[in-house]
Write a structure and sequence with these properties.
Oligomer: single chain
Bound molecules: zinc ion
Distance between the termini: 18 Å
Number of helices: 11
Radius of gyration: 21 Å
């Protein structure tokens, strides 16, 4: 079978490899679609990964084609979103079902083979979140992972119906967070500095503001009729967004830190005082919940897609087969194209 494997930094090639054979509890899926995550670009060109060679891709869907355990044969032919974390099941976080905090995890698509291939071997059926609606496309199911991250940010931010929510970063996760806000009856305002990203989100019906506008804060006062922001979702990992978020947050509001920082974060003296005066709350956000306690965000996200309540297909701006995937990676890395979500798909 064909697989896009990373051999070392900047050596990402389409290889002919042995098609895996499932043993024991293992499941073989035929990949339906696999999204290019923002983290995959630096993984290929700058950072590399811990294991070589490895098939990348952790945002994917697939259809069960072979099973190791005959008891699982009823799953053959069923299509699912795939939870990519392989937890150790031994550390304190795993013991309480909080796999995102596992201290010794592997990840399908970064530390073990993932979804940029024709087939992918899963350790067991535990990784499969089945869709119940045949109309839900494999491309859509590849967006379940980013959609759960967006949902998790909204839930950790304690967004309630009627809240004004400011989301920094109008990329796929920001737009998905704004969609969840609307589903829950909250009012999202997306914020970005990239004119193309702003236009893209506006075309999808969102209120979007450019934080570089000199009257940005006045615009937010007007947009919220002076009430300001209940929950800030900071999705860029930058000091400037964090400081603006603190400024626009109303007393007792919540600042949700979602974006990964790349340098030290600085809070100005004025905004530090504002945190105290407004008695703001802060929370960090890491991935999502994949357990019934407190709440399985993966099952809920697939269910909301199956019920046609969460729309994701219009975020896919670029599609590719395996043969052209490296080219698509190069074009994203070289900033030749404006991408919201790009996917490898078998549906073209
Ligand atoms: Zn990702
Ligand atoms: Zn663990």
């Amino acid at each position: 079978m064909k697989a896009m494997r990373l051999h070392k930094i900047n050596e990402f090639t389409l290889d002919q490899v042995e098609k895996p054979v499932p043993k024991g509890d293992e499941i073989l899926v035929k990949v339906g679609a696999c999204g290019i995550c923002g983290s995959d670009i630096p993984r290929v060109y700058e950072l590399g990964t811990k294991v070589y060679p490895v098939t990348l891709g952790h945002e994917y869907s697939g259809t069960v084609v072979e099973v190791g355990n005959p008891e699982d044969s009823n799953l053959i032919g069923r299509t699912a979103a795939i939870y990519p974390v392989v937890p150790c099941n031994e550390c304190p976080s795993c013991k309480i079902g909080q796999y995102a905090q596992c201290s010794n995890y592997r990840n399908l698509g970064s530390r073990t083979d993932g979804g940029f291939a024709e087939y992918c071997l899963l350790p067991s059926k535990w990784h499969l979140v089945f869709s119940q609606n045949e109309e839900t496309s494999k491309d859509d199911l590849a967006l379940v992972e980013p959609a759960t991250v967006a949902l998790h940010a909204i839930r950790k931010g304690e967004v309630l119906g009627g809240n004004q929510v400011m989301i920094f970063g109008a990329g796929p996760i920001g737009i998905l967070a704004a969609r969840w806000c609307k589903l829950f009856g909250a009012h999202p305002i997306l914020v970005d500095i990239n004119p193309q990203a702003i236009a893209f989100a506006k075309e999808r019906g969102f209120v979007v503001r450019n934080s570089l506008d000199s009257d940005f804060v006045e615009q937010i006062i007007e947009e919220t009729k002076g009430k300001m922001i209940d929950v800030v979702i900071e999705g860029t990992g930058t000091s400037s967004a964090l400081n603006l978020g603190i400024e626009c947050c109303k007393p007792y509001g919540m600042i949700t830190l979602l974006g990964n920082p790349h340098t030290d974060t600085t809070i100005t003296l004025n905004e530090h005082s504002n945190i105290l005066r407004k008695e703001l709350k802060f929370t960090g956000v890491w991935n999502n919940y994949y357990n019934d306690l407190p709440f399985n965000e993966w099952e809920y996200t697939v269910q909301m897609m199956d019920e046609n309540k969460l729309k994701v297909s219009d975020l896919i701006t670029h599609r590719s087969d395996l043969e052209h995937l490296k080219e698509l990676f190069d074009r994203i890395y070289n900033k030749e194209i404006n991408v919201c979500k790009a996917v490898y798909t078998t549906e073209i």
